[in-house]
Structure formats: C-alpha cells, structure tokens
Amino acid sequence: MITTGQKIAIQRTDASRLPSTDLDNIKFGRVFSDHMFVMDYVDGAWQKPRITPFADMRMSPAALVLHYSQTIFEGLKAYRTEDGGVSLFRPKDNIARMNRSAHRMCMPTIPEDLFLEALTTLVDVDRAWIPDGDGAALYIRPFMFASDEYIGVKPSDTYRFIIFTCPVRGYYSEPVRVKIETTYSRAFPGGTGEAKCGGNYAGGLYPAKMGQDAGYHQLIWTDGLTHQYIEESGTMNVFFNVDGKLITPALDGTILRGVTRDSIIRIAKDEGFEVEERKVSVEEIVEAARAGKLISAFGAGTAATIAHIASIAHGDEVFELAEISERRISERIGTVLDGIRRGKEADKFGWLVRV
Ligand SMILES: Cc1ncc(COP(=O)(O)O)c(C=O)c1O
Fold it and tell me: Which of 156, 161, 183, 264 could form a disulfide bond with 144, CB atoms 3.0-4.6 angstroms apart?
C-alpha cells in the first residue's frame, strides 16, 4: 500500500547558511541550500514526508545501497521568471522517469501528487537560494536508496527518498572535445541504460577518465553490442546538425529519455526545422564530418542545456567542428527553451509548474 494525501511537516533551520554564501560565485554541485525533503518507505508504505535542515544522516555500514547500488536519482531545475515568480521546468516528466527507474530497479514508486508537492514546497522554502541571471537556476536532486541493514543480494524492504537543491550557474562554458568510444560501453540491450540508476554512472567513470587522460572532455557512447551506433554524449543526449537536418539517436531502451532532448525535438519541429530520431551510425557521422556536412553537434541535458561540441575524435581522426560550426538551429532552440523557462516566451507546450 502506498500512502498519499499526507501533510508535509516542515522544520526550518535557525542557522541559515545563505548570508555566508556568495550566490554569484558558486561551483556546480558544491553548494547546498538550507533544507531537504525526506520520506521513508517502511512496512510497504511511504511514511512521514518532512522538510528538515540539510544535514548529514546516520546509516548502517550494512545498508544495501552501499553494497549493491540499489539507488536511483533525478535532476531538474527551478528558474526565476521574468514576472518575479519561480517555476519548475517539466517536473512531471522527471517524476515519471524516476518512477520508471524505480520499477526497473525493484523499488517502490512515489505517488506523483506527493512528489510534485514535495518539489514545490521544498523550492518554496528555499526560494531565496535561487540565483538570478543568465544560466542561473536551482538544481533539484531527488534520489532514493535501499536502506535495509542486510548483506545479501535482494530488493530492499525499506527505502529513503530525499530531495535537496543546489544553486547553480552555467555548467560548461567552452565547446567540448569528445571522443567516440568503441571499447567500453555504458549500456546494453536488456540492461539498465534507460534507468537513472547510480551504477550506470559508476561504470562510466573509468572510460571517461581514460578519455580525459587522453585530452577529451567527454565520450560519445556507442551501442554495447557492435559499437557502430551512437547513443549518448557523456551524461547528455546528443544531436547532430547534418546538412541543416537535426539528427538524434532514437530511444531504444539503452539511452536515457532526456527531458531536454524531448524539449529540443518539440521546439525544433515547432520552429520548422527537420528532425530525425533514428539509429545514427558512427560511419554516417564520420562520413558527414569528412565531407564537411557535419555543421554542428551538441549534447543536451538539464545541467548544461546545450553543450556545443568543438571536435570529435574517432580512432586516429579528429574532426574540428569549431571552425565550420554554424549554430543557427541550436542557438534558436536554446533561445526559445530558455525563454520558456524564464517566462519570456509563451509556455505553449504547458511545461512550467509555478511554485
Ligand atoms: C546518461 C544521461 N543522458 C542524458 C541526460 C539528459 O537528460 P535530461 O535532459 O533529462 O537532463 C542525462 C541527465 O540527466 C543523463 O544522465
């Protein structure tokens, strides 16, 4: 049984860290707002939804999550809007994705209305932490982990669900150098690629480090079976502008269903650009690059929104896009997307939820 309609208890801090925080100089993911939302799953139900001061917590060294990685997370943002308000961007899509991840990882789902109320209440409590200005937002991190004190591979009976927030500014400033990865894999058919579970990211660290040691910011992941098809770029979805057409790998179960990816596709189509979601082979992109038809490429995700790619390495070849890049399409889409988030453009797709 899942308990809904519970009131969220709020315990405010009496020692806010905001006065000693410089919101104009924040490192991504290093600064945390004053409060967090916490709720435990015990005896088959979500219990005691509450907002408390952000603080360390106690857990058993035998907690299941620490050994077998039964943990999932999300990432979304709240923005200050032009009318002085605050809005969440597409939170229901993140809630739905978190619940799909929960299903894949044998974890309990979270009632959508309670999840949304937790998000809006927490952001409201820490509203003063939302920075203002270009690229500034409140990054919101919901996550859930297995908390049973037990050594043995099985789904936990108890879980903790937490949401905390971080004030952030821009993520990547410079276009990134990427390498097409054809040795290691992030995901494979039947695996957990589509779930936002911790293990996917831990497994990507070593190949990413190898890439970084060789001078690349990010990897372009390819399919785990043949390494012939492009999947994602680092922790972002990836788009290519080939001859004026926007191409992105189709969702096939191994790729994360990015909210930014979907937003870009919908805005691009609405703006009259041609978009193709389909299998994208490495060969096709390499051929387009050789022929000078790869006009630009970019990663898409909540953290960076659009991260332009400066160069793509494949084997011994390096294709420099920076010089030929013509970013009319991505810049137009980025402007519309940012305009919607900030309330400068009409929310024609119904994406904002006001706090
Ligand atoms: C592996 C991966 N792909 C893509 C994305 C982009 O998804 P979104 O646009 O929902 O942030 C993310 C970030 O959440 C990610 O971790």
Answer: 161
